[in-house]
Design a protein that fits this description.
alpha+beta, 5-stranded mixed beta sheet, 5-stranded antiparallel beta sheet, globular
Length: about 400
């Protein structure tokens, strides 16, 4: 039974699905075709020495987006290698602790996959979270840019990665590959005394939980009722219940905006650090009076941040890969500089002039030119006026 939070999503969570389906995470000996990418993929190796060098250089990196300088898997939208889980020097003598293998585009595109994501089966008879007679699931790929038309039915998050969808024409079930790999029962560090059982949307165990007339809130204290945001994990012995999207929060994250030198660790009891004082979020500058509010914290810097305030790593946009480059073909509209797909740092789009601060869009670092995704970017992409850089 898996224990959350998980440190290596590719190996522990998705790799578990591959093995349960009888697959093997084998290393290819030559370049291979991949149906969700235009170019062949080849085996790549990330060594610890290289990763350490990149980490040192990142201290002087002034990029705005937290994920942009990391190798991100295009399947599950998590880091290819979690630098915060690097083995200690005493254990680095083994080959597994020196090198980390993954698949990368042979033509130099910014397309990468965990070995487990690369080996995912194209078809599943069922999964624990969607076990319906006669329903099968097939693997598909989102476009680089997420669509508002679909969200994962388990976590209710948009995704630009791989997902499974049901083949039954009367069933609209879709789940990103992380949620499709989830088991029906888990253990969680925030509630270690009992296992947690999967609860589909609208099927909360009212008889085992709080009275029906009382609004049931997620015990991560994210501020939303348990019946919001898709599905939940609930304890069958007591009242503990959390959204799937909260239960699967990463154990640690990083933010060059808030802390360039230390990881932010997920904590479940603020009293351990604040000794009964109010919890202060350094991002939204609000105080939380409930000590059970889950927070990301750095003890070295006395820094606390809501998961929802780290929107690109632990909140609404954590399943979206940022950093891909696009160009506008009309030189009269914008010089031929590449624009990075990211959360916009400016208040207004330079085309429609609408307020799009921290919403998805494209920014040119050379001339501080911004294009919002919803009003302008999608239209330009549809007409061919903007294209991705291969």
């Amino acid at each position: 039974m898996l224990k959350f939070p998980i440190s290596d999503v590719g190996e522990e969570l998705i790799g578990g699905l591959v093995k349960r389906e009888g697959g093997a995470i084998s290393i290819p000996h030559h370049d291979e075709d991949y149906k969700f990418h235009n170019h062949k993929l080849r085996l790549a190796v990330l060594s610890l020495s290289r990763e350490e060098e990149e980490e040192e250089n990142s201290d002087n990196d002034d990029e705005k987006d937290d994920q942009e300088s990391e190798l991100i898997c295009d399947g599950c939208i998590t880091p290819i290698f979690n630098r915060k889980q690097r083995p200690s020097s005493s254990s680095s003598s083994s080959s597994s602790s020196k090198d980390y293998y993954y698949m990368s585009c042979s033509s130099g595109c910014n397309y990468n996959l965990h070995m487990a994501c690369f080996r995912l089966p194209s078809r599943l008879p069922s999964i624990p979270l969607h076990h319906q007679s006669g329903h099968h699931l097939i693997l598909k790929s989102s476009h680089k840019l997420p669509s508002e038309e679909w969200k994962c039915d388990v976590c209710s998050l948009q995704s630009s990665g791989l997902f499974y969808t049901c083949t039954n024409i009367f069933c609209l079930f879709r789940a990103d590959i992380k949620c499709a790999s989830l088991p029906a029962t888990i253990y969680h560090t925030a509630h270690p005394q009992h296992p947690l059982y999967f609860q589909p949307h609208g099927k909360i165990r009212w008889t085992l939980l709080r009275p029906v007339r009382q609004k049931i809130y997620c015990d991560a204290m994210c501020g939303h009722a348990a019946y919001n945001y898709g599905c939940n994990y609930a304890c069958g012995s007591c009242e503990f219940i959390v959204h799937v999207r909260c239960a699967t929060l990463p154990a640690s994250t990083s933010s060059r905006r808030w802390d360039k030198h230390h990881p932010l660790l997920l904590t479940y009891d603020a009293n351990l650090n604040h000794q009964g004082e109010s919890i202060y979020c350094d991002a939204c500058e609000t105080a939380e009076t409930n000590p059970k509010t889950w927070m990301y914290r750095c003890r070295h810097c006395d820094l606390s941040i809501h998961p929802r305030c780290l929107i690109s790593t632990s909140s609404e946009h954590r399943n979206i890969k940022f950093g891909d480059k696009y160009v506008i073909h009309d030189a009269a509209l914008h010089p031929p500089h590449p624009l990075a797909y990211q959360l916009l740092p400016k208040r207004r789009c330079d085309l429609c002039r609408s307020d799009r601060y921290e919403q998805q869009g494209f920014e040119c670092a050379s001339c501080n030119f911004c294009v919002c995704l919803d009003n302008c970017g999608k239209e330009m992409l549809g007409k061919g006026d903007m294209k991705a850089v291969e």
